[in-house]
Every structure is written in C-alpha cells, then in structure tokens.
Amino acid sequence: MSASSGIPRPRPLRRALVAVAAALGLAAAVAATAPASASAPTPPAGWTQVFADDFNGAAGSGVNTADWRYDTGTAYPGGAANWGTGEVETMTSSTSNVALDGNGNLLITPRRDASGHWTSGRIETNRTDFQPPAGGKLRVQARIRMPDVTGAAAKGYWPAFWMLGAPFRGNYWNWPGIGELDIMENVQGLNTDWATMHCGTNPGGPCNETSGIGNSTSCTGTTCQGGFHTYAMEWDRSTSPEEIRFSLDGVTFHTVRANQVDATTWANATDHGYFIILNVAMGGGFPDAFGGGPDGGTEPGHSMAVDYVQVLQSSGGTTTPPPTGNRDAYSAIQAESYDSQSGVVPEATTDTGGGQDIGSLANGDWALYKGVNFGSTAARQFYARVASGAAGGVSGLVEVRLDSRTSTPVGSFAVGSTGGWQSWRTVPANIGPVTGTHDVYLTFTSGQPADFVNVNWFDFGH
Fold first, then answer.
1. Fewer CB within 10 Å of terminal CB in the chain, N or C?
2. How far is CA 72 from CA 383, 459, 460, 461, in A?
3. What is the dihedral of CA 76, 81, 83, 87, to 10 degrees?
4. Which value, in Å, is the radius of gyration of the alpha carbons in the chain?
C-alpha cells in the first residue's frame, strides 16, 4: 500500500481496444522498451532461487498463468471498491494492458479510450508462501523501468512492485494487520522510489496508517523512468530483532525492525507467507497526495517494463515439520509436512526452493494434513505442484477429501508423465465450495499399480 492510501490496492486490468489499435499500441510500447538483461542473476553463494520469471516469450503474449494470476475489474470479489485506494482504472487481462514484449520484458500499460475511461494491468503470483525460513533470509527483487513519462503528462501514474500477506487472499478486509511490503512505488513520474511496510490497524495504530512505515530515495545514473533499476526487499530472520530491509540498486535505504512495533502487530504481519504483485494504477490516494489523479493532460500508453522478478532464500532446514496451529488453506502446504500417510516416501527435490517432495505415489496411497483453515469465503480451486516420470499410458488422479479418507472427493485432477520425476508443473483443479477448518486428505487413485506422481506442495484458492 502506499503513503496516503487506504486499503491495499490492486491495479488496473480491463480494456478492449479495436484489434488494429491494440496491435499498434503494443508495437509502440515494444519499440520504446529498453533492452533487458538475459536472465535473472545467478544466486550468490549461500542463496537458493525459490522463484523467478524472466518474462521470455513471444511479443504480445500474456504471462505464464502457472505462476501468475490476473486481477481484473475494479475490486477483489467482495472487497473494497476501486481496489481500496480510490484509483480510477479498470484492470484487465487483455494483452493491450499486460503483455510480453518479445525482448524479455513484461509490459504493464495504462490506456485511455475515447470516452476517457482508463484500463491497466495488475498481476499477482499464484504462490502465497514467500517468507524466510526460521533463522534465514528471503530476498525479493525485480529489475524495472518505470513508465517513461514525467511532468504533467505523468499525472495520476502509480506503478508498483509489492507484496501482501497470504491471509489477505480470499478475505480482502483484513488489511493492514496481515502486512504489506511495498518494495517499489512511484507516482506522477517523479524520480523517487518509495518503500513501505504496512501493518497494525487503520487509521493510525502502531504502523502510522494509512501512511505506514516508509522511506524514499532517488534513482541515480539514469532516472527511475529513464532506465532499468533493481528494487529489492530482504527479510532477515537471522538477526535479533528481525528486520526487513529495502534497497535500490544494491543500496539499502530503509529498514523496519520488529522492535519498532509491539510483538502482536509484528507477528500478525509476518507469521505467514506473502504473494507478489505488479501493477500500474491510475489515480488514487497516493497520487492525490502529490497533485491529483489523471486529467486531460495525462498521456496514456506509457508502460512499466519488468525485466525479471526473482525470489531467493538463504539457510533454513530441508524439511517442513507439521505446523503447531491451523494450516492456512491459501498458503502453500508443503507435501512432506503430512501428519500421517500410507505409501508416501519423502525425497529431496530439485524444484525451486529445494527441500523435499513426496514420491512413490500410486493407487491407494494417501497423506493427511490436519487443521486446514479455509475461512468463511468458500474455496473453489485446488492447486498442486506435481511431477511425473510415469511410462506412457500410466496416469492417475490426485484427489482432495475432507475429514475422512473414504469421503467423496471434493475435487481432483488427472496427471500422467510431465517429462520426469523432477519435471515440475503447477496443476489447477476446480473443487466443490469449502469453508471452515478441515482435515485434508490427498488420495491417489489409479487403474494400475505403478507409481504415477510426485507432489511438492499444494494450496487452495477462491
């Protein structure tokens, strides 16, 4: 969330252009895009890459929906209007607003139609489990060029790279207590990078909401709009007190420490995973604090270009013990953290983030995960990270059952070979609506006896 904002903010994404106009707009944006680096940097010694997207792909294609989801419209379902911040755009999944440029960049482009209506784009990671291991560190970074527009033509522009606490997904009314980490925010085309942590209660509270605990700095060498810069957040659980540091091009300019707020406020904001958001809003509370939202002089069509997003992790164990309290249905549940099982074999994985998966899964095997909290808004989707080196013609079902191994599955998906036992993909499935807290059984059913799948993690969505 940003200084002077109200409730966490999603960003614009919906707008239909005439096909020719859309093609011309994308071509112009691509032509204006600066070169991107070939790939996300190699992790330094002691760090492991947990997630990365270099946004490589054909010009005009959308993002990889195995990793990202589009936010569309003007609010989360049942959430605050105008994404809780007063912004004026409609978010869409159209490639006129969110597209790869063919040169290794993601472009998020605000556009305005003949009637003055703004559209833009907002995407967030499917994963909600980004947090440091006990005693370790998490680094989330992106190489970004802000929209190349300044002065009166930039009025109302609000690009951002930020994170929200996992409990927000599906609730949409528990901000700021669940935490928000703004790694990069900018308004009005200023050569300024704002970084902020939001927490506690709103208004006021221990985290000075709605402004939050923030600081800012300027881009050097080239302006934030004139070139790519690296914006990063490092969350460090190896220090006492725990701290969250924000940097620009490797230089830390803002640090928030756990002892700046009471223990309950810090725990509520940090005792869970986070998901990542990229968006460009138009108008809203933050731009209002610096002169107002878009007007007739604002130029549409200037893209935020993202070269890569990367998440790194340092230290921590290789296995995930069962949690002591309720599991969050909307954060990744590590498959090896089962409470009991039959036929399951934990093994080291080469999937991003390392650790372990569960393998040797065949007909009749199962794993139990106690106390999974789905909340009061029904979950309707199931996601599992799976791999399979099964022979041709060998496949089976990954099923979700509640409270009993023999209950009717609320949902399932079929899986066969993915190209190898460590060739991972995230598979979605629809499930019947689930609320409340349940023991979740993953069961594995096949018409033949051979192993057919490995599972690394799973979670649920609305």
1. C
2. 20, 22, 19, 16
3. 150
4. 22
